[in-house]
Amino acid sequence: xxxxxxxxxxxxxxxxxxxxxxxxxxxxxxxxxxxxxxxxxxxxxxxxxxxxxxxxxxxxxxxxxxxxxxxxxxxxxxxxxxxxxxxxxxxxxxxxxxxxxxxxxxxxxxxxxxxxxxxxxxxxxxxxxxxxxxxxxxxxxxxxxxxxxxxxxxxxxxxxxxxxxxxxxxxxxxxxxxxxxxxxxxxxxxxxxxxxxxxxxxxxxxxxxxxxxxxxxxxxxxxxxxxxxxxxxxxxxxxxxxxxxxxxxxxxxxxxxxxxxxxxxxxxxxxxxxxxxxxxxxxxxxxxxxxxxxxxxxxxxxxxxxxxxxxxxxxxxxxxxxxxxxxxxxxxxxxxxxxxxxxxxxxxxxxxxxxxxxxxxxxxxxxxxxxxxxxxxxxx
Length: 380
Prior knowledge:
Strand content: 15-25%
Structural class: alpha/beta
């Protein structure tokens, strides 16, 4: 089958790779009709992880079941399904508690598994014509038949639940004010989710004009950090108090204000300044234990200079970690079905699989309006 294969920093290619097959009675094989390029994929694409050449990328996958293992009970050939990026067993201590992003079964020696991602287990990614889904009864979420709302539903694999998860980590409640740092796809989903949860005022911080325009279009207040300290800009619009809650949707490749260099802890420290005393921070933005391309020796080891003293002084709470997609995807799916949510506003391009190499390059450079790309390996 054709698949997007990582070749080395800043290079992916469409190659023929081995077709997946049923390996366990609980597996299904899915014909992939939609798969999205994630900002997290760019960390590998840029050589900023320990990823080795040969990985098939793709953890945001939707398609139609082509074959089921003998042990699968709730799914049938022809079912349209979307899979969380988390590969999870459903029965370990963490899965039973709802922490499916930290499954203890699927990736021995590590808490958590995912498709097509470095250190997340032997699960081939879905930027390909087919994908094997293990523990399929647990990991597949059924969708309505047909092709309607395809670009909404594919976002249930990761970024819509992840944006919502940022709000859960920060405990965003109706009537509160929220600052979201980052207007990429996850940041826009975090801001959108804050609106869905009844936030009274949502600020979105970024420097890319197209992204800030998207943020304004959904009713949030754009903050361009190239025009001055974002925390101060936000305080000017909150009577000097700051926001009730804050969300980091950027992660470790954050840009220094006014300079063309990275400052890995700047978003965390900006949120400490932005959120009022006794508020809370949600951090779904990706941080890694090692970063080969870090700007200094400490950050290369995943050690960042965070203002912990100020965090403590203000009595701030902070929740971190990747999204447990299964906690949210069912009710977010139902909101899409009932037209209460339409997350596909973030999708800028829908392309055939063969255009993936060019799409990666343009998405990485933030050019030509590339904000979120959905690839279509096969016809729906």
